Amino acid sequence: MNFAFIFDNPSKVCSRLEADKLDIATLGVDRFVWLDFDNPREPLAQRVLDELDIPNAEIDVLIASEPYYFKHRQNYLLNRMQICSQQDHVFVSSPLTIVMCEKAIVTFHPHSDPSIIRVSEEVEESFKAVGRTTGFIYFLLWNALIDGFLPQLFSISEQMDRLDEQILAGKVTQSIFNETLQCRHSIRILRSSLSPMQRIMRDLVNTRLELISDDARKFLTGLFEHMEWIAEAIDSLQESIFATLQGYHSSVSLQINNSMRLLSIIATIMMPLSLITAIYGTNFPYMPEFSWKYSYFVFLFFLFAVGLTMLFFFRRKHWL
Q1: What is the percent of the chain where pLDDT is above 90?
Q2: Among 45, 91, 229, 283, which lies 20 to 30 A Cα-Cα from 194?
Q3: φ, ψ for residue 109, nearest 5 deg
Q4: What CATH code is carried by the domain that includes residue 284?
């Protein structure tokens, strides 16, 4: 177990709880807990889920580590989703499972999660202000999870703006291409994380449950609308990445065309020079020019003049 909070409604007191002192039988509407575990396979976690009357089939799903799962019943909620986080400028996803009933809310996550840390730091003040049931922790978790998308989207957007500026400046390198592909991979991870969360939230908003009041459902509706905005932002970033990749390929094609044009001009200049040298390289027994004293120098001057004339012609045509 990572931590445990116990909440007492009559006194509005929130305090940390030792795992060995947990007694599920003493919990209820006026006294509930938040338990956080690394793994649902922990013996204490399985004992808690069993005492909370979570069906064995659902516990088996938790242990099986399904990537996405949700089950909403009148007496309990179970959500499993993939949460994105940024580690060393690379986006990775890790599972987060939330189990909620009247007596307790239980979270499972194998790695440190910024959303869980943020809520654990704010939960005491929030409980004093608005907390009455386990639902308020559930809403705080969802709010933190959704807000967690924003800095990640801003980070990718700033990175894409920087890459666009470099491409427009003609700096087309393999590292820029790799960074663009990395951004596309990050966007895919964000999309794959958000889509199941939207499905879970849509079901929560449209289903009447005893654990969720009408006022809470209005709050969830606001979160769902926020998720729709984030989905549109992700789609916009996907289009931006596609445009950046197109710009990169266009710049590469332009560089290749410029190189081929230069090589074509060089080859074109060499063609008449090669023809002239080929003619004077034939083995005829008598060629009058060979007997002249200055024929070699005239020949070099002629080749030089032909080359300069063609270069001048190409410059006039703006091919160089």
Answers
A1: 5
A2: 45
A3: -155, 130
A4: 1.20.58.340
